Amino acid sequence: MADILTQLQEAMDTLCTMFIAGFYYVERHHDLKPFSPTDKIPELKDAPKEVETLDPQTFQAGQAEIANDLVNHARLIEALVSALPGLDNSERDQLQMIRDLEEEIAEVETQRLEAVKERDEVLEQLDGLLKTVLRH
Length: 136
Fold this sequence. Notes:
The two termini are 55 Å apart. The model has no long low-confidence stretch (mean pLDDT 86). It is elongated and about 105 Å long. Helix 1 packs antiparallel against helix 2 (56-82). The chain contains three helices and no strands. By secondary structure, the protein is an all-alpha fold. It is 72% helix and 0% strand.
């Protein structure tokens, strides 16, 4: 599984794509009504194929679904951000956590070296036993 920062970047990329898809939906399916009484819509012989006007109920349902998806994805991003380490810790606390982890790593490395040494000793003993068995 990817780390939190990678998940956050992917979620942000997805949110941007969702915004673009939402804008495309509105641009593609709007009802060609003016915003104010002074706005004019030019009369075209051939209606542009880029706009496929939907009935108002379908258009609003589509907008509501897009808005719901955006809100849910924003909540996911908020959850990822809250899971980032260090948001509730001061710099001093974070530095202490790093020192503690470094000490823990040093202890584990010491244990690893001891295990390697023990393994080498056991292999040496095994090698000696095999040589003894092969001689007899």
